[in-house]
Structure formats: C-alpha cells, structure tokens
Sequence to fold (180 residues):
Amino acid sequence: MVNITTIHHSIKVVKKMKKTVKNAFNLCVFIFLVNLPFITVTQLISTDAFLDSFENPDFYLYIQSGGYSMEPDIKEEYYILLQKSSHPDFSIRDRDVIIYCKDNGEIVCNKVCNINCISPVKRYHVVDDNDNLTDKNIYGSQIIGKIVSVVNTNLWDVISMKIWDMTIHNLNVRTLFTNH
Fold:
C-alpha cells in the first residue's frame, strides 16, 4: 500500500523540478534575447570590429550615410560604420572605401584604387561613383576614416546597431579595469 505522505512529497518534488526547469528556460530565453542584437551586430560588422569597438569606442562612428552616396554599394539612406583615421591600428588598403575632406572643404566618399609612397608620404588614388579614376591625390591628413561596414535600413539591423552604439559608449573594456 502506498503511503499518502510519500505521494504528497513526490508531487512537491515534481512541482519544484518543473519550476526549476521553467526558471532555467526563462533565463536562457532572456539571455538569448538580450544578446540577439549583439549577435546581429557581429554578423554585420565582423567579430574583430565588434570586439575592438568595446576596447576603442571613441574610434568608431555609426552614422547615416546622408550625402555620401556610393551607388550602387552605399545608398544615401543606408547606415555606415566608420573607423576613424585616429584609430591606433588604422590602415588603408586598395578597395577600402574612405571618407575624406577635399581641398575645398567638401566631404567625399570614394573607393581607394591605388596607394603609392613617395618618401614618407603616402598618396591615395580614388575612383568616383562610376569607377572613374579621379585626378586628385588624397593624403593621409585629409582622411576622416574608412567604412568598416554598410548596414541596410531594415528595422532590426538599425535597432541592433543603435543598441551596440549606445553600449560601446556606456560600457567599454577600459572602464572595467580602471580604478575610480
């Protein structure tokens, strides 16, 4: 014959296990949802840039491309992630897209097609929107930064990038290791 207290105890144990499993599941869902924007961002900008942005938050800008059209690659309504030229590891290679200031003060976005050095001075040759070589040399002092990533304007990507942008400026690696 089965003891009533044993059955009662078994029911309590099962209810406790169900509650524990439910709490663990809810915690996993919460952690996944909180990290989902960051997972999206690593897909959009690369894991290296994502991690570097937390170590060097002041060297990245997330902006709407505005007047920096580079059709068909970068449409005016897209968002771009710009690595500033002041970044400690900043370098430019052929095919990088840079934003620079022309002699007349106009801000321009073009693709680098050739780099040459004369003495210690690097000169960058760029192509315009139609892949035509421009006749003007660009110097390092004119370069504002290079485009690391182009983000489409779909709602989820924009929200994810905004969360990332707020986070890198409010929580970065340097603040975790500095004494206050």
Observations:
- The longest strand covers residues 107-118.
- The CA atoms of residues 1 and 55 lie 67 Å apart.
- Residues 44-170 form a domain with the Umud Fragment, subunit A fold (CATH 2.10.109.10).
- The mean pLDDT is 81.
